[in-house]
Design a protein that fits this description.
two-stranded parallel ribbon; 10 helices; 199 residues; 4 strands
């Protein structure tokens, strides 16, 4: 209950403070090229329930038809504004809406697409999906440069499924086992420090 209250208060405050910058980002996306401001995609949430995540669109509107779900290196589908949004992680801000809707938390394992959840080992799957997915978590901070790691692999999807995904999943299970309001505050503080450094 305390975590959910923290999420509601934090997301409401963040949306109030960031409303004007988010509007400017939306305008930038519209000026940069045709297509919607938001990118919506099915993700797997708590207890395996599927929801539609909100993100600022960083790729061309028909990106799903042009290539794989994974983003690898300097993906040509990424727009000019999208490059900056991805580097600063500002594309994740609309997920504050998902927090208010109860689909996500401020801190929690990053939600995967159903395709990759199918590769979760049953024992870790139940543990990782026992909590609401989050906007940030220790694993996502450890893999801030995931696209570059995948670009260096001969088979990016195989690299993701066989090497990166298991590490993320174990970290998600570890988080679910020891999460507290204090650890969430620490993750948020670390996230802000890293993003300021990258900006």
């Amino acid at each position: 209950m305390a975590k959910r209250l923290f999420d509601l208060l934090g997301a409401t405050l963040a949306l109030a403070l960031l409303a004007s910058p988010m509007l400017l980002v939306a305008l930038l996306i519209k000026v940069d090229g045709p297509g919607p401001v938001f990118f919506r995609q099915d993700r797997v949430g708590r207890f395996g329930r599927v929801f539609r995540i909100h993100k600022f669109r960083t790729m061309v509107a028909d990106a799903p038809q042009r290539g794989p779900a994974l983003t690898v290196g300097a993906d040509p589908r990424i727009t000019r504004s999208g490059q900056w949004l991805r580097r600063t992680r500002l594309d994740e801000l609309p997920q504050l809406i998902d927090v208010l809707l109860g689909h996500m938390s401020l801190v929690g394992p990053r939600p995967e697409v159903p395709k990759y959840v199918e590769h979760y080992p049953p024992a870790l799957r139940d543990r990782a999906l026992a909590v609401r997915p989050g906007i940030t978590d220790p694993s996502s901070l450890a893999f801030l440069d995931e696209a570059e790691l995948l670009a260096a692999a001969a088979d990016p999807e195989r690299e993701y499924i066989e090497h990166i995904l298991p590490r993320k999943l174990q970290a998600a299970a570890d988080y679910a086992a020891s999460a507290s309001l204090w650890t969430d505050l620490q993750v948020i503080a670390r996230t802000l420090r890293l993003l300021v450094a990258r900006g």
